[in-house]
Structures are given as C-alpha cells and as structure tokens.
Write a structure and sequence with these properties.
By secondary structure, the protein is mainly α. It contains eleven helices and no strands. Helices cover 75% and strands 0% of the residues. Helix 7 packs antiparallel against helix 8 and helix 9 packs antiparallel against helix 10. The longest helix has 17 residues.
Length: 208
C-alpha cells in the first residue's frame, strides 16, 4: 500500500477507536498497529502493542515486534528486556535460526551495559547452536579475554582458526593463542599450537 493509504487508514481509525477500551476488537488494534509502524510512528505503535499484549499476552510475534520497535526507537534498555522476554517465550524447542539472532542481540546489549559475564553467557548459548560461525567465536573469545581467562581465550582462538579457510589468517589466530599460552606458562599447549603454525607456514612460524 502507498504511504498515503496508510495515513488515511490510520487517521480514520484514530477518529473512531479508543485503544484503551476493551470493546475495541483486537483485529482492529493489530491493523492500527501495523499502520502506525508503516508510518514509522514507532512510539505510538509501542503504546498500542502494550495494550494488545495486556489483553492477549500469548501473541508471541507481537512480543518480537515490540522488541524491534523499542530497538528502532533506541530505547535500548527496554528493548533488552523485551528481547529477553521473547527468548523466554520461544522456549527450548525453538528453531536455532530463530533463537540465534535473539541471543546475539542480547549479547550486544549486555556488552553495551558492560555486563561481560552476561555477554559470555548469551554468546556461549549462541555458539552451542552453531560453533562454525567465526564471528560468534570471535565475539565470545573477545568477551572471555576481557574477563581475564587467558587459557580459555587461547582455546577460543584455536576454535576460531579452525572455522576459517585462510591459512595465513589461521596462523595469526594461532599465534595469538600461543602468546596467551606463553603468558600462562602452558608449555605443552604452547608447543602444540606452535606446531600447528609450523604446519601452516613451514619454517617461517613467525615470532611471538
């Protein structure tokens, strides 16, 4: 529909409905909400979403939409809470493709709040769903390294290296792991990682 049609429909509804009235049908409120969102009147759309969810809290797709609207409005603390509620509503049997972006969003929110432990928790759950995504392993590795757990960060450097195809990039990640292992005086693990670098680079294993 053209924007003018959305504007006309929204204006028509605004003159005729009371969103707070229990007599206003949920179908009408949902249509009004979609019109407001199409017009980028997000604050008004959030208000309508709150009313609908107050009357029909089982609309899980609306829980997701509300979280998206809050995020778009940059009401980020509220959006974090809304995404956490959506994740809880999805339950343990939800498809990984649905859960994954929610976990990533929540990890990003935790990082923004300087809650590194919470970020690690969400990223660990994301990696459990798909441990072959280098960007997830990188984000988890950075959070773990920030926590001061160098041994575990070194292991994550190795996992990140195994998830990418480029040999030179693998070698650089493994060397970063080796530096952490050297700081931890983990000699056996250090030699094992340096052997992997040697296999990738030959005699030019690089310097720690």
């Amino acid at each position: 529909l053209a924007r003018e049609e959305f504007e006309g429909g929204v204006q028509l509804l605004e003159g005729r409905i009371d969103i707070q009235s229990p007599d206003t049908a949920l179908d009408i409120l949902n249509g009004y909400l979609q019109g407001l969102r199409s017009l980028e009147r997000r604050a008004d759309a959030i208000e309508v979403a709150d009313v609908i969810l107050g009357r029909d809290p089982e609309q899980i797709e609306l829980v997701q939409l509300r979280a998206e609207l809050l995020e778009e409005e940059e009401r980020l603390d509220e959006s974090d809470v809304a995404w956490a509620e959506y994740l809880e509503r999805l339950g343990p049997m939800a498809d990984a493709d649905v859960v994954m972006p929610v976990l990533v969003r929540l990890a990003r929110g935790a990082k923004r709040r300087d809650d590194n432990d919470q970020a690690i928790d969400y990223l660990e759950r994301a990696v459990e769903l798909d441990d072959g995504r280098p960007e997830l392993l990188r984000d988890l590795r950075i959070a773990v390294e920030n926590s001061g757990d160098r041994r575990r960060a070194a292991a994550l450097y190795e996992r990140e290296a195994s998830a990418i195809p480029n040999d030179e990039a693998k070698a650089e990640l493994l060397l970063a792991a080796a530096r952490l292992l050297r700081e931890e005086d983990a000699q056996d693990e250090l030699y094992r990682v340096l052997n992997q670098v040697h296999e990738l680079r030959g005699s030019d294993a690089g310097l720690l």
